[in-house]
Specification:
Blueprint: H1 3-10, E1 16-17, H2 23-33, E2 37-42, E3 45-51, H3 52-61, H4 71-74, H5 88-98, E4 102-107, E5 110-116, H6 117-140
Parallel strand pairs: 1-2
Antiparallel strand pairs: 2-3, 4-5
Amino acid sequence: MKVSDILRVKGNTLFTVHPDEPLARAVDAMAEKDIGSLVVMEHGDLVGMLTFREVIQAIVKNGGGVGTLLVRSAMDDHPLTCTTETDMDEVRRMMLDRHARYMPVMDKRMLMGVISFYDVAKAVVDSQNFENKMLKAYIRDWPEEKTTP
């Protein structure tokens, strides 16, 4: 299974933010849209990732509020990325190694989508459920062995 399989099911709605926007506005957008991440884009290029983890770290460093912080000061400026052709086993390993919950999907310099750890887990469970269903159907249709007298 590849990342393209997840994006096909998930759809292509993307939420982005500019690095010089106020962090407060980005947090409002995340809360309003009930999303855990925003892709940070500047001049059409991916320059970072803002997740609730970075927001919480920025709030703690800033004494409990976002104040006048900009997205640039809180974002991860070296986010983990993958392509549509990346295998799901590789994505799981990458996300686990870096403790990443969200990963932008790139095709060269073009942002194709974002997958979450939830998306990956759901794809694995769905795949296993399908495989289990096929195995059970195969077992039910198993031909009986002929016994020789």
